[in-house]
Structures are given as structure tokens and as C-alpha cells.
Amino acid sequence: MLKRSYLSVVRRKTKSIVMFLFLFVISTLALCSISIKNASNESINLVKKALGGEVTLSADMSKLRENFMGENKMQEGQPPSNEDRKSQMNDMHNKMQESNATIDDVNKISSIKYVSDVKYTFNVTATESSFELYETQSSEDEENMRMPKGRDMNSLQVISINTFDLDDNYKNKKIELVDGTSFDEDDVDVAIISYELATNNDLNINDEIKLKDSNDEEHSLKIIGIYQNKDSDEFNNKYNKIYTDINSGEKFLSEESYNNGNYKISSAVFYLNDPEKTDEFKKEANKVVTDLEDRYLKLDIDTESYDRMVSSIEGTKNFSNIILVVVILSSIIVISLMIINSVKDRNYEIGVLLSLGEKKIKIVLQFILELVLISILSFIISIGTSKLISQKLADKVISIQTSSKENAQEFNGRGNGFSNREHLGNMGDNNVEIVDEIDVNVNSNSILMLFVLEFGIIVVSMIIPSIKILNSDPKDILSRRE
């Protein structure tokens, strides 16, 4: 049967060459699609590991607003008086304070298996004791215009954070450490201050500063880091901002605020090891802390950075999937038609073989073997061409995807009255870069997938022609020949 298949391929040169060229084209396209898809999956997995998903635990402002408006509807269509409005604002403020998450909430949610890291902060009420604040040079009119009433532009701000490396300003490179090191939750009585504050007071690494809490009790902190601002934001004076560790921050809390260790926090961000697990994480979080909704708290799932980074890769992956499906369907249809036509031309040969006692299933296998012999050569050559084409094809597709995404974002930005760059800057997402390249390699896995795919196409393509062969009657075929 193998010899007969080989002779059949050699004798029918024209049809064999046509079939070879077709199989070569579909093999090349299929292998390129498979390689691009595999490379896209690898790049997406790398982005997932590097970025992860971010989920913020914060007050549900929409529900608070709805509740507030429901409780303070205008009576008989009369607008509220100034005193009523002031009372309502105080009520709203108190509800916002009550809706703050606690450290117990953070610890419970952090224990969920999807969480890889967590960042939480709270503001510390403190006054300077052993040093002087850095005062910016601004006119009184400018200060009054920029700052809300009752707020000093040059006031001290102390932020207690569990890990300095996760601070948004530090991560987004708005500030950078020019000396010293950062701290984490294991450090005690340490602080990171600004370069301006250090220079103004002749302070260096390992020096101590003293701060007073609300009870006028002094606490000493060792300077382990000095940061410098990379942007000039006069509205938010960061020169007098001091970062301290969580253990030190707890010492500044009053007994009431400390609440036996279950104190309130300003914000909490949970970093997930897989952005696609955000829904599962949210369900688990509501199980371990069942009263989040009652306390007007919500888990705000943010996968915007991940989606923006991999948007072009996802588009390229989808494109490769479409090409692969088109190749498979068109191959099955075209090869089936070519074999059906070949069966008609070789009808007499089939009749002779059947009359000589050849089994019908062996004739079907002969046709399959002929296609396999032709496909082997096309399969081998397509490996070489795919290595040359796949990377260039991927680069071209991902370039088109990236350009279309950027144009769409710019169009949306213009529609809202500002450019895309300005919009991204306002959202604080300007440091998230779109991944616009992938490394495509035709590896052994891709080749194995192509081999299985091509063999499957040949077998499926033989289904309809096989029915005709299996239903053939040698007497009828030979009688019609005579």
C-alpha cells in the first residue's frame, strides 16, 4: 500500500504539486498562527506576574451619597437653611469617617490565597518638636487661592505606611530616594523625610527627629531615608511630608483611635497574583468580612493597568486565532473538494482494486497516505519559512493594534475636551506602558501542534470522499467503463 501510494503521487505530478503548494501555504499560516498565539500567551503571563491585579478597599461614596440624599430630602419643596446644610455636611463627614476600614479587615482579606501583597496607610496627627518645617515661597494671595480655608500650605503631614516601596508617589517615580533605604512592616521608629526638610534642618541619615502626638508626648524617629520630589506641585506641598512605619504610627494614636489594636486606616490596596482572579477574590473577601456593605465599604477592582498593557497583545492573539480557524475550515473544504475530484478521476482504478479483492478501507487509507506523503515535505519546508515570517507578521499586527488603541484613546480624549496624554496624566496612569512587542519562536511545541493539526485536517477532509469509496460497487464501476 505504501509503494502504491508513492507511485500514485509520483505519476500524478501536476496534481501532487498543486496539493503540495496548498498544503505548504496552510502549514506556514497555521504554524505562524500557533507560534504567535503561544508567544502572546507567554507575554500575557509575564505581564500578569509582573503587574498583578489591584483591588482597593474604600468607602462606597455612591451609596453614602444615596443614603445621605435619602435622609435629607427637601421638606415640602423648601430648600434647606444654612444651618441645616451645615448639619447635613457634618453628618456626611461623620458617615465617611465611620465607613473607614480597620486593620482587622485588612488582615482578614490579606489571608485570601489570591493576595500576593498589600499596602495600607493611615494619617498620623503629630507636630514637629526637634526641627523646623520647610516653608515654600508663595504670596498670601496665591496661598489663599490654592489652599482650602483653615489649611496651612506648609503644615506637617505624617503618613504611616506598612511598606514604603508600595507608596504611589514612589512607585510612579514622582519621588525618589536620594539617600538611605526604605522600610517595611518589620521596622520600628524609623522615618523617611524630604531632601528640603533635611537640608533646612541639617539632618542626615541615622539622625533622630522628635514628633509630638495629640497628648504632647514626644516620640523619636531615626531617619533611614531621604527622598526628593520629581515634580513641582505647589498645591500639595510634599516637602513637609514624613513617611513612618506602621509600628511607629500606632504610637501616635489616641487610646480611643487605637481601639485595642483595631484602628481605622485611610486606604488599603490588595495586590493579586492573577488579575483574572479578581471576581473570585471579591467573593472570598465578602465571606471573610461579611459586613462590608453594611459599613458602606466596597472592594473596587482595578484591572485598568493590566488591560491597557496587554490590549495590543490580546488583539494580536485574537487575530492569530481567527487566522487559525480560517486556515482549518478552508483547508478542510478545499482538500475535500480536491479529493472528491481525484476519486472521480480514479474511479476505474478503485473498481479494479476492489475487483482484485482489495478492501475498501485500505483504499481509503491509501488516499490518506498519499496526502501524508505530500504533506511531510510541505510540513518540513513550512518550519523554515514560518521562522522568517512569524516574527515579522506578529510585529506588523501588534503595530496595527497599538496604533488603533492609541487613536481610539486620543479620539475619546478629544471628545471630552482634552487629549489622551492629559487624561492619562490626570488619572495617574501615565507610567503604564502598552506592551507593543512579543518574541515569537517556532519551538518544538508549536511544531508538534502543527503536525497533529495537519494530520487531523487530512483525516477530516477524507470523511466525505471515504463515503463515496465505501459505497462503491466494482461491478457497476467496471460495467460503466466498458
In brief, what are we looking at here?
With 482 residues, this protein is of the alpha+beta class. The protein has helices at 2-11, 13-51, 61-71, 82-98, 103-110, 140-146, 168-171, 195-200, 246-251, 255-258, 278-288, 304-345, 347-355, 360-415, 420-427, 444-461, 463-470, 474-481, and strands at 53-59, 115-124, 127-128, 157-161, 175-180, 190-194, 208-212, 218-229, 241-244, 267-272, 297-302. The chain folds into 3 domains: 2-49 and 308-481, no CATH class; 52-61 and 100-303, no CATH class; 62-98, no CATH class.
State mean pLDDT (0 to 100 scale).
Answer: 78
Radius of gyration: 35 Å
Quickly count the domains. Answer: 3
| Count of helix runs | 18
Q: What oligomeric state best describes the polypeptide chains here?
A: single chain
Query: Which blocks of ≥5 consecutive residues have pLDDT under 50?
Result: 139-151, 407-431
Q: How are helices and strands ordered from N to C?
A: HHEHHHEEHEHEEHEEEHHEHEHHHHHHH
Helix content: 55-70%
Describe the structure.
Strands 1, 2, 3, 4, 5, 6, 7, 8, 9, 10 and 11 form an eleven-stranded mixed beta sheet that branches. With 482 residues, the protein is an alpha+beta fold. It has helices spanning 2-11, 13-51, 61-71, 82-98, 103-110, 140-146, 168-171, 195-200, 246-251, 255-258, 278-288, 304-345, 347-355, 360-415, 420-427, 444-461, 463-470, 474-481; strands spanning 53-59, 115-124, 127-128, 157-161, 175-180, 190-194, 208-212, 218-229, 241-244, 267-272, 297-302. Mean pLDDT is 78; it is low at 139-151 and 407-431. A hairpin with a 5-residue loop joins strand 7 and strand 8 (218-229). It is built from 18 helices and eleven strands. It has three domains: 2-49 and 308-481, no CATH class; 52-61 and 100-303, no CATH class; 62-98, no CATH class.
